[in-house]
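We modelled the chain as a single entity of 317 amino acids. Its sequence is:
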Amino acid sequence: MTPREKFISALKRKPIKGRVPHFELAFFLTMEAFGKVYPGHRSYHQWDQMTERERQLHRKDIAEIFIRIAEEFNHSAIFLHPNPATLEETFRLIEIVRELTGDKYFLMIHGDATFGIPSGEKMVEFSYKLKDAPEKLKEEAENMVKEAIERAEKIKKHGGLDGFALCADYCFNTGPFLSPSMFSEFVTPYLAKLIKAYRDMGFYVIKHTDGNIMPILDQLVQTNPHALHSLDPQAGVDIKEVKKLVGDKVCLIGNVNCGLLQTGTDEEVIASAKYALKWGMPGYGYIFSTSNCIYTGMKLERYKLMLKAWEEYGNYD
């Protein structure tokens, strides 16, 4: 099986042989690993002044970095982050990666259009709207989903993409920003509509949120994504419990404590990786990853240590 085929089998919770698939939503340590600035950290203020030749060189460099990450660290999927993040540049990046790799990797982009935790600047305004203008807020939610679906239809027509990662965060370590009842009113119906539209177009859908998802786990699963990411252990989310509750309904991704990769001991990193594999792999439907991403400030050696545990303990054979 190709990495892409194995990734899709895991999303479908089908049996696979060999090592459990692995990927990360983002790998920011490209400077440390390859001497290259991460594509999303680059500034293109002069993009409009570039010649088409300059733009094409930037596109190819970005594509090659994403491919190199996947090849170097044995990722089965690539979460593409176009920069600039326009629809046209999304098309171009998908094209280049497919030209260079064929169907080897599962390709996804960001595709959420639901209300996540508001930024600090908008927190108060959003909270007032919940109380004073709930119907207006629901209209906003409906419009966001409509625009996302229209965008996905254009992407589907263009071709080359396998799916979407929905990256609106809903939860703090202590629990959801919205109560379960409010979540069911202002998020769940719109998330379900978005996921259904994506699935009807033939796309796979991974729903990401950090934090303690347990109070809304049932609602997240009811919206019918193919997978849930990141199963955050720093918020008390235990993959053993989640697997028992919903492992027969949805693929699980993550649960390796990314905080330990930065501040824990080597033994703690290995133990977290082994725990995620031990309870995630049985019955299939599991993809190995951290509980967030490989972020700036993390030591590359710690990520490699996590991968060493995966190579040793993450095999179905």
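As a brief sanity check on the tokenised model: The chain has one domain: 3-313. Residues 160 and 210 are 28 Å apart (CA to CA).
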